[in-house]
Amino acid sequence: MPDHELIRRITKTRQHTENICSPLEIEDYIPQPMPDVSPPKWHLGHTTWFFEAFILVPHLDGYKLFHEDFAYLFNSYYNNAGKRVLRPNRGLMSRPPVREVMAYRTYVTENLLKLMRQGASETICELIELGINHEEQHQELLVYDIKYILGNQPTFPTYGERFDLQASLTDLRFEEVSAGLYTIGASGKQFCYDNECRQHQVSLEGFQIANRLVTNGDYLAFIRDGGYADFNLWLSDGWDFIRANKIEAPLYWHHLDGDWWSYRLSGFQSVSPDLPVQHISLYEAMAYAEWAGGRLATEFEREVASDRLPSGQLWEWTNSAYLPYPGFSKAPGALGEYNGKFMVNQHVLRGSSVATPEGHSRKTYRNFFHPSSRWIFSGIRLVK
């Protein structure tokens, strides 16, 4: 029998990706201002290729590829799935045109629904669940990338207020978390990524965690106190990074006529002291924590404290390297490349952001990026 709830989710997820792009002009779909940013057209094609390559080709009898070149154009990093356009070259792809990518999306979605209505096996349903979560990840990346594309335009075009942060007017206080032995990770009974498994226990010392994120006002005090000029606050890699890139403030901040301004998706505006500070690298987060007399949480502390914290507006850097949990094993073939091969030179972020799709976050979720990443929706929460 068809799984009607899964059919509903396929339709909703596929439409949501296109809704995120709806405020864009056609010219906005192609630029790639830096290698880490992918053009919106590529996201639209890649999330479609994922369903085609891993679900429709092996499991729908008689399925015909929409276009034989699209696997090469829209594969990301799956070496097992064949050759691909190199990541820095995605913005050079003026063809296929956006209209053809949209036709590709429609074709694949219709075939996914056809497969589901035939009565998909448990294995196929699990793969579709993964495909939905994969597309939800790209929905968030799509927001990051759209902001970077528009935020590097000379006129700072307006996208809309949909992903604006809300003011944090709560007085800063620290919540106590007792020492103890805690269970970390997902049980696997509900959907989770392989990097969240397997469950294991960790022993934690008692700690205190801030009830709110660091605000722009807090961070302005750090800047005005010479935080970016005091090497004593910085890790060596971080100090080298900000010096080499002439960084003196968060990404999208501009110092004009004695005041700080920032680009938000709702426009170019004066920096609001009550909003959480955003677009912070791990290096900057750790330097601020050092200046403020605190530190960053480990990913285990952040998971344990999640039930007593309000919903996050930004992913929070932790002081934990992205490494496998005890007993971690990756799946065979291309899907085994999803998470495991990135477990080096990355740090974990916990929580969620205003760009995280509804229902996609959970307390065991392990986001991960390179310490220098700033275009992501990242912020700071202090621990003592």
What tags apply to this protein structure?
13 strands, 384 residues, paralog of FGE (formylglycine-generating enzyme), 34% helix, Four Helix Bundle (Hemerythrin (Met), subunit A), 9 helices, alpha+beta, 4-stranded mixed β-sheet, 3-stranded antiparallel β-sheet, 2 domains
Structure characterization notes:
The structure is a single chain. This protein has about 375 residues and is an alpha+beta fold. It has two domains: about 5-150, Four Helix Bundle (Hemerythrin (Met), subunit A) (Up-down Bundle), CATH 1.20.120; about 175-384, paralog of FGE (formylglycine-generating enzyme) (Alpha-Beta Complex), CATH 3.90.1580.10. Helix content is about 35%, strand content about 15%. The chain contains nine helices and 13 strands. It has helices at about 5-20, 40-60, 70-75, 100-115, 120-150, 215-225, 235-245, 280-290, 300-305, and strands at about 175, 180-185, 200-205, 205-210, 255, 260-265, 265-270, 295, 315-320, 345-350, 365-370, 380, 380-384. The strands form five sheets. A four-stranded mixed sheet has the order 11-10-9-12. A three-stranded antiparallel sheet has the order 5-6-7, with no helix packed on it. It is globular and about 65 Å long. It starts with a helix and ends with a strand. The mean pLDDT is about 95.
